[in-house]
Amino acid sequence: MLIANNLMINSQEYSVVFVDSRVKNNKKIIDQKNNMVFFVDEENNVNSINVFNKHFANPQNHLLFSLNDEEVSFLQQCASENGLKINNDPKFVYVQIKKREVHPKSEKLFILTVFDGVRDIQIVTNTLESIEGKVLVMAKPGSFTFKGDSVVLGKLMDVESEGMLTGYKTLGLEGEGLIFSTNEQIGKDFVI
């Protein structure tokens, strides 16, 4: 899933497309034909893309939004023409909390086991809304928040965390708290 943000600076339209935050961008590839700049690593994996003179469809008028299949195909084709690789894996998915334990080193943190429809994943969180059996949205490693923060594999007080629970504010959406859903959504992409 590719996420974008349409911007207007000095009367110039452009879009920032967030691809994979795990990619450490250390060079720019300029695509003059398509009027875009790819930020990539040494192996030509794409971190993000600046697309100039273009805004992508944003029917809900969200600050951050998911690109549709046609837009993703266009960007993948442009990347391929430049010898670049785009990771279009899901970034935000519905998961179910299977287990919740208090962190051994902090009463204010919880270790969650969540299920994404394929496998169990461990997350460390501080949210009190994280109750066993609930279905909610998780940000997987490689995703970006609305503020541009990267979601990566990490440790909190010596316990591995493979992502984070996602709330409305994290994605620049209106609403409070975490984003909940039903069992039918487990494993599906959360489309912004």
Automatic annotation (TrEMBL):
PROSITE patterns: TRBD (PS50886). It comes from Mycoplasmopsis gallinacea. Keywords: RNA-binding, tRNA-binding. It comes from the Bacteria. Pfam families: tRNA_bind. Gene3D superfamilies: Nucleic acid-binding proteins (2.40.50.140), YtpR-like (3.30.1940.10). NCBIfam families: PheT_Nterm_rel. This is tRNA-binding domain-containing protein. GO terms for molecular function: tRNA binding. InterPro entries: NA-bd_OB-fold, tRNA-bd_dom, YtpR-like_sf. Residues 86-191 form the TRNA-binding domain.
